[in-house]
Inverse folding.
């Protein structure tokens, strides 16, 4: 230890160093007692005053130590501030205003300043806080305001369960320096308003034109549409060129029309049931069909979207979507898992209630299954079918099962679209940086029953009394923009009129007698595929001469001279040789190995046509064999 180190009081060395740095920049920025103390130093060495010695639990002050009671008190106060900051990071989500219905949460005692002995007199005292302030010093009042803005507004975050300190610090920097708020341009705010208008107008239109029909409406959770829009745009800017989506029935029609760009006329035709023979035996086909679409971002990137079919119920599509993306990445030799994204939309009851979710999460970081991180969007309607959270789960959050992973969980108020935008952007940046899953729980509500034939107030009268008083998310966001002066009533009304006129036009088209659904046109690697060979194309000869197969099977049993085969496999290899010599019938495994071998020696691989690799991830070139 140097003479200078021994001469400094290290009750809280980091705190003293921060104060000294602030003192050097501006002496008036520190308290009078600290100015007096630092003034006694010259060129970094104390020239007057008492002698201070190192102190810790391993070297407590003796009777000859000269630590003042004031110094010990200040060090203890700094320690309590550090505890308070940490507890806001751990528990701030409990009191975050994430529920649009405003249901209160009790204040955890560890977030109360009084618990740490702070009084009003301490609120303007400076403390070290290097995460929040570039100078490293803030008053307790400023620290409290920053903590509440970051962790207790429309976004609550669970991330302190992550073991890796560098990951936690990355999240802290991103959230605390911006107070977890995203500054949006007028164009971005108008885009959000337009997407909310898309969602609201479609739901209203279906309710008015198809009275009593089931649509599993998105009403109350309309922010899902701008969430998906923002996710696709941001992912496209990160280099993602293909997104596989999986979801159940809630809001699926809205996603099909406003994200996947399926023709509204086709959706309306399915409601009309005018083509009963076409859909015979397919049940509620509208809510389970898949679709694909080439999305062009505002910056000009093309992102291919694939919404998976989901004939099974709720969450069983999850591993299907992940397997589909893994196959696409393997085909493209995308070993870094950078060009594809899986986006799964869950219901809160299904996320915590179906074991397939935990099984899918467990695969997320395994080398054989990882896709570079999945974006999980949990649509929390606050009621599963007719069951409230208190009767449906033992955990605080529906997303608590995701704490098995080393990933952040964002809880965001669905009536605050700009908070949704922040959660999406931060979540995708986390995924890109750490190649891990990220979970966004959007807390909203379901304005109608499980389907439009149910009356939810029969089982949840108090909940639905509160819901009936809520305006649409679009109207609430419009009021916010009007207060900011970012948009006019005329602009907002024009957006709604344009959307309604377009849907009226599509409905008229769907009701034409000569209407025919658009024929699907295979794209990407399926371009030109017509479901089978034309009648005038002869069957290809795919057989392989017996002698060639015998030679291939013998080659498959050939080992390097210095290779030591496991004793139990020696007999297995001999059986293969007997098959190659015709002394034993082929078994299934040998036949399969010969199928691969016959293709490998011919150098067969899927063809890639010019111009395809820039269009779809699937068409990216493979490694040479």
């Amino acid at each position: 230890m140097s003479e200078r180190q021994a001469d400094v009081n290290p009750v809280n060395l980091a705190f003293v160093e921060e104060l000294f740095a602030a003192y050097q920049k501006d002496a008036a920025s520190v308290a009078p007692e600290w100015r007096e103390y630092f003034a006694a130093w010259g060129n970094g060495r104390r020239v007057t005053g008492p002698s201070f010695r190192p102190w810790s639990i391993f070297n407590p002050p003796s009777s000859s130590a000269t630590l003042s009671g004031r110094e010990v008190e200040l060090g203890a106060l700094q320690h309590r501030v550090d505890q308070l900051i940490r507890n806001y990071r751990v528990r701030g989500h409990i009191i975050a205003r994430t529920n649009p219905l405003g249901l209160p949460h009790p204040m955890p005692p560890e977030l109360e300043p009084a618990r740490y002995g702070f009084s009003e007199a301490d609120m303007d005292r400076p403390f070290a806080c290097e995460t929040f302030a570039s100078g490293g010093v803030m008053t307790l009042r400023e620290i409290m305001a920053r903590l509440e803005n970051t962790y207790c507004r429309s976004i609550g975050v669970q991330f302190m369960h992550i073991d890796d300190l560098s990951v936690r610090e990355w999240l802290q920097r991103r959230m605390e320096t911006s107070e977890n708020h995203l500054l949006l341009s007028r164009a971005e705010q108008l885009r959000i308003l337009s997407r909310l208008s898309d969602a609201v107008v479609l739901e209203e239109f279906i309710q008015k034109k198809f009275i009593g029909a089931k649509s599993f409406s998105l009403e109350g959770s309309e922010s899902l549409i701008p969430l998906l829009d923002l996710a696709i745009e941001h992912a496209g800017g990160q280099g993602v060129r293909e997104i596989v989506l999986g979801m159940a029935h809630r809001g699926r029609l809205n996603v099909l029309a406003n994200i996947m760009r399926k023709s509204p006329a086709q959706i309306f035709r399915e409601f009309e049931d005018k083509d009963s023979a076409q859909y015979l035996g397919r049940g509620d086909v509208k809510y389970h069909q898949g679709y694909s679409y080439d999305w062009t971002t505002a910056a000009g990137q093309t992102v291919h979207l694939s919404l998976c079919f989901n004939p099974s119920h709720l969450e069983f599509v999850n591993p299907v979507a992940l397997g589909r993306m893994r196959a696409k990445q393997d085909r493209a030799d995308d070993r870094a898992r950078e060009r594809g994204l899986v986006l799964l939309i869950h219901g809160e009851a299904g996320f915590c209630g179906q074991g397939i979710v935990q099984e899918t999460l467990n695969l997320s970081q395994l080398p054989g299954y990882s896709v570079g991180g999945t974006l999980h969007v949990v649509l929390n309607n606050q009621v599963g079918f007719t069951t409230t959270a208190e009767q449906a789960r033992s955990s605080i959050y529906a997303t608590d099962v995701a704490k098995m992973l080393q990933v952040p969980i964002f809880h965001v108020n669905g009536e605050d679209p700009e908070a949704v935008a922040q959660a999406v952007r931060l979540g995708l940046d986390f995924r890109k940086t750490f190649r891990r899953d990220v979970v966004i729980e959007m807390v909203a509500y379901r304005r109608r029953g499980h389907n439009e034939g149910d009356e939810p107030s029969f089982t949840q009268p108090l909940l639905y009394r509160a819901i009936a008083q809520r305006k649409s998310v679009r109207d609430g966001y419009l009021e916010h923009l009007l207060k900011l002066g970012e948009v006019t009533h005329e602009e907002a009304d024009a957006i709604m009129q344009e959307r309604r006129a377009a849907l009226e036009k599509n409905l008229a088209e769907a009701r034409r007698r000569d209407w025919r659904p658009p024929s699907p046109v295979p794209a990407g690697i399926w371009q030109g595929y017509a479901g089978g060979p034309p009648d005038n194309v002869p069957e290809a000869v795919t057989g392989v001469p017996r002698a060639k197969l015998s030679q291939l099977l013998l080659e498959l049993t050939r080992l390097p001279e210095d290779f030591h085969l496991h004793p139990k496999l020696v007999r297995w290899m001999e059986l293969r040789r007997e098959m190659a010599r015709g002394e034993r019938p082929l078994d299934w495994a040998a036949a399969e190995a010969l199928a691969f071998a016959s293709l490998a020696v011919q150098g067969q691989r899927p063809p890639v046509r010019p111009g395809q690799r820039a269009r779809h991830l699937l068409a990216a070139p493979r490694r040479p064999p």
